[in-house]
Amino acid sequence: MHLRNPRLLSLAIYLSLGVLMSMSLVLVESAAAKATIAVLCVAFALVHTFQFPKVTATRHRILYFAVQTCLVTAMMFVSDTNDPFNLLFYILTVQAILVLSGRAAIAWIVLFFVLASGAALWTRGTDGILSILFSIAAFVFTAVYGYTIRQVELARHQNEHLLGELRAAQQQLQSLAVADERNRLARDLHDSAKQQAFALSAQLDAVQSLIRRDQSAAERHLAQAVQLADTLRQELAALILDLRPPALGTLSLGEAVRQYAEEWSQHSLIAANVRVQGQRALPPEVERALFRVAQEALANVARHSQAQTVTIGLGYMEDGVALTIQDDGQGFAPDRIAPGVGLHSMRERAATLPDGLLTLDTAPGRGTRVTVQCHV
What stretch(es) of the chain map to CATH 3.30.565.10? Predict the structure, then answer.
């Protein structure tokens, strides 16, 4: 396991070794023993610095703890005392819990305790029993402390993993949203602007072929071409408006729909009335879906309805919301609906809402009403 800040553990080890080297100058009488302890402390520090970060494989872990255990045991043997150097066994206990499995960590902790207890009995005989009792409490405390650190680090790693998955999912959703908008714009360009441009080209070809032999017929085709060019301009203006809709992050759904309807009305030359009742905050994903449905419905009105007026109603209930777009246009027969008019997209968006339902009420000669309802 990788610690978030391993330098703190290293600093604690270096400080402990510095204290032990200082204590050995006072407790140990032999100059050779003092020098040996200093060398062993430096060796312990070097092994920790260069080997502990690499203890990923099982054999590296066993080798690391074996070497460090031998160094601590040698310090106790040279100094002829165990009490000060038990501190290093407590540090190794924490490390064992951090990097070893449960059973392996317990086995090494038991070994540390046996060595510390054996050294106490060897140096002080039965008087070392008190030191053994203290070691029991100290080993239990350090083991619990090490286990707590391990759980905290595991939780941190898990949170980082979940955060990474969340970011990846968010990026995927953004990519899907971009792809969805691209598909919608491609469909709109194919169903409207491309068809209008094709018809305009056909009218201009007719004008070119008739202008010298039938001027009146050429003028009729030219008038139709002008009308098609104006329609194409309106279609492209509507598509451009869709590319830069109001920001729902700064406006309420009602305000965003009202602002969009005003701009749409200017481009389509169709009067638009917006009525909002009982406005309240909705989840962002619900507002986005309803706003896009309103866009799709108004695009259909501009392309197909030949309406003079459209009414947009947004009603907030206690447990839901309803969006209605109604026009006074020519209507159509739902069972004879042609593909590519946006109803499929609107149904898909409605299906993403909580208990979302889209209903269509229309007939030839009496306009069209699209209603989307959901529970929030």
Answer: 248-376
Q: What is the pLDDT of residue 24?
A: 87
Cβ neighbours of residue 368 closer than 8 Å, sequence gap 6 or more: 300, 301, 305, 326, 327, 329, 331, 332, 360, 361, 362
How many Cα neighbours within 13 Å face the side chain of 12? Answer: 11
Cβ neighbours of residue 359 closer than 8 Å, sequence gap 6 or more: 370, 371, 373
Write out the two tokens for 15.
Answer: 């400080």
- Give the alpha-carbon dihedral of 24, 28, 33, 34, to 10 degrees: 40
**pLDDT reported for residue 26:** 86
Alpha-carbon distance of 115 to 96, in angstroms, equals 16
Sheet holding 368-375, edge to edge: 271-277, 309-316, 320-327, 368-375, 357-362
Give the H or E element holding residue 316. Answer: strand 309-316
Distance from C-alpha of 199 to C-alpha of 274, rounded to nearest angstrom: 34
Hey, what are 49's tokens? 């610095």
Cα separation of 327 and 369, whole Å? 7
Angle at 54 between CA 50 and CA 58, to 5 degrees: 130
3-class DSSP state of 76: helix
CATH class of 248-376: alpha beta
Could you tell me which residues come within 8 angstroms of residue 235 by beta carbon, excluding any fewer than 6 positions away? 192, 193, 196, 302, 303
Write the CA distances from 305 to 21, 234, 367, integer angstroms: 92, 14, 7
Which CA distances in Å does 350 have to 291, 292, 294, 343, 371? 11, 10, 11, 10, 10
CA 342/CA 339 separation, integer angstroms: 8
Distance CA 207, CA 364 (A): 34
Query: How many residues are recorded in the chain?
Result: 376
Residues of the chain with pLDDT under 70: 1-5, 181, 184-196, 237-249, 337-341
CB contact at 8 A, 100 and 112: no
What is this structure's pTM?
0.50
